[in-house]
Amino acid sequence: MSKILVYGGAGALGRCLVSHFKSKGYAVINVDFFENKEADFNALAKEGQTLVQQGQAIDEAVSAALGGAANKLCAIFCVAGGWAGGNAGSEDFLKSSETMLNQSVNSSFIAARLATNHLKPGGLLTMTGALAALEATPGMIGYGVAKAAVHHLVKNLAEPSSGLPEGVKVNAILPVTIDTPMNRKFMPNADHSKWTPPEDIAKQLEGYLTGASHFSNGKLISVVTDNGTTTFLEV
Amino acid sequence: MSKILVYGGAGALGRCLVSHFKSKGYAVINVDFFENKEADFNALAKEGQTLVQQGQAIDEAVSAALGGAANKLCAIFCVAGGWAGGNAGSEDFLKSSETMLNQSVNSSFIAARLATNHLKPGGLLTMTGALAALEATPGMIGYGVAKAAVHHLVKNLAEPSSGLPEGVKVNAILPVTIDTPMNRKFMPNADHSKWTPPEDIAKQLEGYLTGASHFSNGKLISVVTDNGTTTFLEV
Fold first, then answer.
1. pLDDT in tens, A166-225
2. In chain A, how many domains are there?
């Protein structure tokens, strides 16, 4: 059975991915702070660890889940992340910046490391950036800086000398707002027809794997929803 | 006496800045892990702290050095940083990435916070990026990702709603290789006529402060040395 890994598989988008790939017959490993019972295996991270500690613990858990170095993943989808607003004058500027680095940058670095160790040649690695971070983000500085870092990481990983297994393909999807219960709760009056249903992203990522969706290596892919229709475009 | 702060004032470039500004009659605060005896005051950081802990401790030390909320800095020069090579397949990929985030991104976030609290209106904040990080850096992934994050931070901080005091100007200098004893030691056979003398950077930064050097707010400024002559250009 083909195996995939969802990094952040207990979040709203991640849960959707786990369900979607399970329904298509894949075996799914969830990496997250929280268990997702629907996944075949959970490699759980602990809070309060350094990047190195967390990376090592997760790598060992994923190795155990795969049960041997010969067993490889066909895809790693990193959809871990979070959001925090605030500029340099905000009371909690450093705290929210630290959280954004942990949630988006550290998870992406670890996903890259998991790809090095556990992705099969020609496999697929996707990260999650943010369309907003292509420009300045003065009202959400930590968030924008962290996502800009993820964008740069993806460009690096697509280079032939990045250290990833032969032929691995990598991109980043850049959503605007994903239609999650949390976002509905905090932005009840927003125009929800412009929010991206998680299912649309799950289908696109599966399409990358099956070849049904066009894949451009090393690219940042905007995810824009309008009137309920989602379009994926290279930026 | 006009006061400036050098973040990273015990490193090779930072020491040069401290000497230069002292020679021009400025009072200088050094923020670093190590003391610089030439500085008027040392606000020392501790290893192994979180971004929030380190930021708070440094902010308190700088407050004490300034001796009252009415006493403000006319400039903050963040030249903290370091270098590590390695791609995603390197044994110490996560370790070097973590170090790069700490040395370049965390210091820049804290410098931004210090600017919010202690820089006078119309004051000057400069960060240190890297010319290489404008493109992919697959052979030094952690370094490139961290510097790309710094570039984004600078763009954010230059926006009117960034939370910095009124009229503060900010940019990033993007050197290639700085002519330091450490770089001479590890790259003895490189073409040193293409390396940038720290003094050239010190003079440029002082020029920003006096008005002798043209300053473009929010810009990334390449620092390129050829045949011993250094040119600073907007990229």
1. 999 999 999 999 999 999 999 999 999 999 999 999 999 999 999 999 999 999 999 999
2. 1
Cβ atoms A223, A131 nearer than 8 A: yes
**Chain B CB within 8 Å of residue A94 CB:** yes
A148, B144: Cβ pair inside 8 Å? Answer: no
Alpha-carbon distance of B74 to B209, in angstroms, equals 8
Q: What is the domain range of residue A87? A: 3-177+199-217
CB contact under 8 Å between B51 and A101, yes or no, is: yes
**Region for residue A229 given its phi and psi (left: phi exceeds 0; alpha: psi -120 to 50; beta: otherwise):** beta
Q: Is A111 near chain B, with CB under 8 Å?
A: no
The pTM score is 0.97
Q: How far is B163 from chain A (nearest CA, A)?
A: 4
Contact across the interface for A115 and B88, Cβ inside 8 Å: yes
Domain membership flag for residue A225: no
Smallest Cβ distance to A88: which of B52, B113, B141? Answer: B113
Q: Which residue has the tokens 């099956």?
A: A210
Q: Does A136 touch chain B (CB under 8 A)?
A: yes
Cα–Cα distance for residue pair B131/B157, rounded to 1 Å: 19
Contact A54, A45 (CB under 8 A): yes
Assigned domain for B141 exists? yes
Sign of the C-alpha dihedral computed for residues A179, A180, A181 and A184 taken in this order: negative
- Closest among A193, A183, A173 to A234, alpha carbons compared: A173
For residue B53, give both structure tokens: 């802990």
- Please indicate whether, in this complex, the C-beta atoms of B162 and A52 are within 8 angstroms of each other: no
Q: Compare CB distances from A138 to B50, B93, B156 and report the shortest one's residue.
A: B156
3-state secondary structure of B37: coil
Residue A227 domain-assigned (yes or no): no
- CATH number of the domain at B28, please: 3.40.50.720
Hey, CA dihedral for A193, A194, A200, A201, is it positive or negative?
A: negative
Phi then psi for residue A139, to 5 deg, are -90, -5
pLDDT tens-digit series, residues B149-194: 999 999 999 999 999 999 999 999 999 999 999 999 999 999 999 9
End-to-end CA distance of chain A: 34
Does the active-site annotation cover B143? yes
| Residue B164 contacts A, CB cutoff 8 Å | yes
Indicate whether A187 belongs to any domain. no
Q: Is some CB atom of chain A closer than 8 A to the CB atom of B46? A: no
Nearest CB among B98, B149, B158 relative to A149 is that of B149
ipTM value for the complex: 0.96
**Inter-residue contact B103 to B146 (CB < 8 Å):** yes
